[in-house]
Amino acid sequence: MNENETNKRYIVTLSIAGSDSSGGAGIQADIKTMSALGCFAATAITSITVQNTLGVTDIQDIEPRIVAGQIRAVLDDIHPAAIKIGMVSDCRTICAIAETLHSYDNLPPIIIDPVMVSTSGSRLMQQDAIETFKKELMPMATLLTPNIAEAEVLSGCHIEDICSINSAAQMILSQNCNAVLIKGGHLEEKTDRLYARTGHDAASLIASYHHDSIYSANTHGTGCTLSSAIAALMAKGEKLEDAIRMAKEYVSEAIVSGAEINIGRGAGPVNHFFNPQKMIVR
To answer: pLDDT confidence of 87, banded at 50, 70, 90?
Structure first.
């Protein structure tokens, strides 16, 4: 092996999230998304869920020390260029993740998808863990990506229109969050809005991303997929606003490409590999 070969590296991403046995969401969707975008996906599994396209029937949390150990194993050895955090269901795990990440200097961008309730309505974050999540993890996020229901929980605001999205963003950013993308797909406007903190108590709208409705029953894991795509694109060097735009385009294509596929009897997955990139080597 010559010197040039030893200097070659993949672009590494780390997903800290729960496992979905049906393969459509969670850590499986993260691996597929990051791989499809040319990155090398490492993982730290926080929970194992028993689920299929019809819903979640059981959850087994991983011991927090094992979650922390997985994170250290990746950070100490293969040095990810971006981190995505998804399902974290209990206070002990949230604290273990935050404490572990705080022990490292010069962390890469951290994209957090605050997974609280599954598409089928199953609670994925314990009620008493919400305040711990807000205190310990939200301030670490380069970007938080809640949907409307999650933004309501994190802000305490009822959201029904653009005006109330603005209010919710203000409340979220006032809790030491750096930037938030509130996904408005369930509202009539069909617009995702990116806000960033510009002062001690100020929230500014940075960008809005309109998207047309796509008819498909196969939308399981779209939130996981979007946040993972943003992380992968930032790992590749894209700026936040561009990474979001490109990630949304990827998710839309994945939905369209998987719309006519029949997997299971419920909400199926998107087609993550509609146009996979080769693993990027630098």
So the answer is: very high
Question: Given the structure tokens 């385009």, which residue do they identify?
Answer: 249
117 pLDDT above the threshold of 80: no
**Could you tell me how far CA 210 lies from the centroid of its own chain?**
19
Residues 6+ apart with CB under 8 A from 192: 181, 182, 183, 184, 185, 208, 209, 211, 244, 248
Q: How confident is the model at residue 96 (pLDDT cuts 50, 70, 90)?
A: very high
Active site residues: 183, 219, 221-224
Cα 131 from Cα 22, distance rounded (Å): 30
What pLDDT is stored for residue 2 in this prediction? 55
pTM over 0.90: yes
Residues 6+ apart with CB under 8 A from 120: 54, 55, 56, 266, 267
- How far apart are alpha carbons 91 and 103 in whole angstroms? 18
Query: Cβ(87)–Cβ(150) under 8 Å?
Result: no
pLDDT band at 67 (very low <50, low <70, confident <90, very high): very high
- Residue 281: CA count within 13 A, CB half-sphere: 6
Asked if residues 192 and 183 have their Cβ atoms less than 8 Å apart, the reply is yes
List C-alpha distances in Å: 48 to 44, 55, 67, 99, 165.
11, 14, 12, 22, 33
CB 49 within 8 A of CB 63: no
